[in-house]
Amino acid sequence: MPAIMQWLVDWHAAHEQELRSRGISLTVQQPAPGTATRGRPKATAVSLALESDERLGKLFVWEQGSASLLFIDSRTEYTWQDEQVITSENDLPRVLAPLIDLLEGSADRG
After folding, report:
1. Residue 57 falls inside a structural domain
2. What range does the domain containing 10 cover?
3. 85 and 61 in contact (C-beta within 8 Å)?
4. Which residues contact 33 (CB under 8 A, 6 or more apart)?
5. How far apart are CA 50 and CA 44, in angstroms?
6. HEC states along 27-81?
7. Which member of 9, 12, 105, 110 has the lowest number of beta carbons within 10 Å of its beta carbon?
8. Spatial separation of the C-alpha atoms in residues 102 and 110, rounded to whole Å
9. pLDDT computed for residue 70 by the predictor
10. What residue ranges of the chain have pLDDT lower than 70?
């Protein structure tokens, strides 16, 4: 987890000013402590939250690199989800691009 957390922190630092200038606020959240229950391991996701007006985007990344993306537009009630795998810091721009497009309202919602 430390490497993935650092990748998100670094990406956040490198892109925060640019995204804020485009009207998107962003925060990185470390995993909350958890306990294993009923034979399942605790969830240890790092998350990145992006918000713009009535739109919310979230990226959750687990230890093994699996990533879930979620987008919600509360005005139009449009939602979008995707699953990706992050194996290196270089994967973040590719994985986050569709989420950022949705936050800016520029993605085709077919």
Report:
1. yes
2. 2-29+45-104
3. no
4. 42
5. 19
6. EEECCCCCCCECCECCCCCEEEEEEECCEEEEEEECCCCEEEEEEEECCCCEEEE
7. 110
8. 12
9. 96
10. 1, 32-44, 106-110
